[in-house]
Amino acid sequence: MDFALTEEQSAIFDMAYAFGQDNIAPHAQKWEAEGTIPKDLWPELAALGFGGLYVSEESGGSALSRLDATLVFEALSMACPSVAAFLSIHNMCAKMIDTFGSDELKARILPKAMTMETVLSYCLTEPGSGSDAAALKTRAEKTNEGYRLNGSKAFISGGGYSDAYVVMCRTGEDGPKGISTVVVEDGAEGLSFGALEEKMGWRSQPTAQVNFDNCLTATDNLVGEEGSGFKYAMAGLDGGRLNISACSLGAAQAGLNATLQYMSERKAFGKSIDQFQALQFRLADMEIELQAARTFLRQAAWKLDTGAPDATAFCAMAKKFVTETGSNVVDQCLQLHGGYGYLSDYGIEKLVRDLRVHQILEGTNEIMRVIVARHLIAR
Amino acid sequence: MKVLVPVKRVIDYNVKVRVKADGSGVDLANVKMSMNPFDEIAVEEAIRLKEAGKATEVVAVSIGVKQNQETLRTALAMGADRAILVVAADDVHTDIEPLAVAKILAAIVKEEEPGLVLAGKQAIDNDMNATGQMLSALLGWSQGTFASEVDIDGDNAKVTREVDGGLQTITVKMPTIITVDLRLNEPRYASLPNIMKAKRKPLDEKTPGDYGVDVTPRLTVVKTEEPAARAAGIKVGSVDELVAKLKEAGAV
Ligand SMILES: Cc1cc2nc3c(=O)[nH]c(=O)nc-3n(C[C@H](O)[C@H](O)[C@H](O)COP(=O)(O)OP(=O)(O)OC[C@H]3O[C@@H](n4cnc5c(N)ncnc54)[C@H](O)[C@@H]3O)c2cc1C
Ligand SMILES: Cc1cc2nc3c(=O)[nH]c(=O)nc-3n(C[C@H](O)[C@H](O)[C@H](O)COP(=O)(O)OP(=O)(O)OC[C@H]3O[C@@H](n4cnc5c(N)ncnc54)[C@H](O)[C@@H]3O)c2cc1C
């Protein structure tokens, strides 16, 4: 067993970290205030191979392992977890198309998705179905002109901003087996968006409802086979959970680094506050928790990469553990900054707000426990 | 034209430097090491020359411990074509002095016959600022140091140098040695595909003995000390008080 990163993995982490610090971190607060990420950031990231992190080389991707990809998300989220998480969603969609799409669809969509001229959004959740995603109601009728979609998707990251939407919709019976996946390009007839959601965190990403009103998309935009859409949607989630965990981990690590710096400078009762043992113990606990989270996350990623039979359970366990640890750590970071942690200038309260949603999306942390318990009881 | 780029592995510029307890030097055990930032600029310039069709091959060289391999992989990931590692020490704390480095580089130049050596103006660890100049003397080649602009034109290179109080432009005959300054360019990030490709690019391992060079140190480090801690400041209540204090201190 070898826990060390390879030379190559260190290089990947360092490169993503450097890019994030130079090109994302200085703007993170401004983008949050503006409620959007400038679109010209994406081609810059794509030039480094981030547009298709685990998309195959044949399709123009970087063909990284999922463990390597977690390094990218950990490093980028040290600059801004909201930006890093948005990139994760695009990658999840690109991977779905690469794995399950026809050669024709891949050839049509992926080249621009790899350069991120086409930014992709993932549309599963609906106003009436979140955790119980297989209860989705958006319908797609096959007609002579193509699929006609009717219904709405809720909470869509990149809704109204992205260039194409990977939509899980019902083409058949109730339940998971009646679901298909289609790509709907921006500008499609009958596609519209709700108002931007006002959110606690992830404020630099636009989130909106996506509405389909007799929305037309080509029959060739079907991903894979009819009736397999739910399977495809779930296939992306194990890895998505790793990514979102990595985003919590990186942001919390950045928070801890900033806190250490702050505490060495801030004086109270005649000494720098990192000299109080009560606070030193808290720092130690934060470090222990983060290292445990990192090890757990990388083990889960390794399970997914090696096709271990318990990979899904490990991804779920890691997601629950790492996202909660991340939130606890940044909350402590805020506390240790005193009143200044509560002010937006220090960037710590942003981390608290950004990380909170990681316990809710990509499957809530309750659903993670459902998965783990099911795995335990079946054993 | 082949371009040779020597790269040094140094303590990362973000790391808080700590002096070893015995004062013999800076503690390098378990600290993050990276490519000397000036060398990164040299690698970038070499790659740009290749992209512009003015260079045909970029060869990176590093002299030091086995772990310098990592530094060379960074150069390869940025776009260098191949690398030469000269393993000259076992302990990361052993610094190979500029003269020994210059001698090894001179031997490599004789073997590889590059038309240009692009080096950092200095390494950020010991700030010697000597290797390029020594190499120039050993080879009898021209040199253009502290370059902030380089224009290769056939048999000549126009080099803009950052000198005290401004810029100086000189023309040097090729082959030449150019040492680069901070403002020459902004090094690229190595992309993921290029990081992967770097692993498959050739990296030759050599020893100083292969070049007949003795790297035994000639300099003795007497003492290494932390800079004196900054004295605490004082708060002044008004501009008048500030001016008075500055006068008192003889600062105005
Ligand atoms: C900022 C943001 C961005 C998002 N981006 C996207 C996106 O891009 N694409 C997309 O498709 N979705 C997206 N979502 C939606 C997200 O995936 C859902 O919010 C999430 O799946 C939870 O669904 P819900 O909100 O309907 O909650 P519900 O499913 O209504 O859950 C409510 C509560 O009940 C609990 N619960 C539900 N079922 C069970 C059970 N069986 N056992 C125990 N507890 C249970 C949940 O854990 C939760 O605490 C986003 C959400 C947010 C907030
Ligand atoms: C929104 C807001 C409104 C406010 N309104 C007012 C107001 O109206 N009037 C007013 O006077 N003030 C106000 N404050 C200031 C507030 O009372 C201070 O922020 C608070 O007392 C903490 O002080 P500090 O921020 O300087 O943190 P510090 O004292 O620098 O503390 C930093 C961290 O070190 C810890 N710490 C410090 N000393 C020790 C020790 N000896 N042992 C262990 N831990 C220690 C603290 O608990 C904290 O976690 C406000 C603050 C905010 C954020």
Automatic annotation (TrEMBL), chain A:
UniProt GO molecular function: acyl-CoA dehydrogenase activity; flavin adenine dinucleotide binding
Cofactor (UniProt): FAD
Domain Acyl-CoA dehydrogenase/oxidase C-terminal per the UniProt entry, residue ranges: 227-376
The keyword Oxidoreductase appears for this protein: yes
Residue ranges of every copy of the Acyl-CoA oxidase/dehydrogenase middle domain listed in the record: 122-215
Flavoprotein listed as a keyword: yes
Keyword terms: Branched-chain amino acid catabolism, FAD, Flavoprotein, Oxidoreductase
Similarity section: Belongs to the acyl-CoA dehydrogenase family.
Domain Acyl-CoA dehydrogenase/oxidase N-terminal, first and last residues per copy: 6-117
Annotated protein name in UniProt: Acyl-CoA dehydrogenase
PANTHER family documented for this protein: ISOBUTYRYL-COA DEHYDROGENASE, ISOBUTYRYL-COA DEHYDROGENASE, MITOCHONDRIAL
EC number: 1.3.99.-
InterPro entries linked: Acyl-CoA_DH_CS, Acyl-CoA_Oxase/DH_mid-dom, Acyl-CoA_Oxase/DH_mid-dom_sf, AcylCo_DH-like_C, AcylCo_DH/oxidase_C, AcylCoA_DH/ox_N, AcylCoA_DH/ox_N_sf, AcylCoA_DH/oxidase_NM_dom_sf
GO biological process terms on file: branched-chain amino acid catabolic process
Pfam families: Acyl-CoA_dh_1, Acyl-CoA_dh_M, Acyl-CoA_dh_N
Pathway it works in: Amino-acid degradation; L-valine degradation
UniProtKB/TrEMBL annotation, chain B:
Electron transfer flavoprotein alpha/beta-subunit N-terminal domain residues: 23-215
GO BP, sorted A to Z: carboxylic acid catabolic process
A GO molecular-function annotation: electron transfer activity
Keyword Electron transport: yes
Pfam family, any one: ETF
Family: Belongs to the ETF beta-subunit/FixA family.
Assembly mode: Heterodimer of an alpha and a beta subunit.
Function: The electron transfer flavoprotein serves as a specific electron acceptor for other dehydrogenases. It transfers the electrons to the main respiratory chain via ETF-ubiquinone oxidoreductase (ETF dehydrogenase).
This protein's name: Electron transfer flavoprotein subunit beta
Gene designation per UniProt: etfB
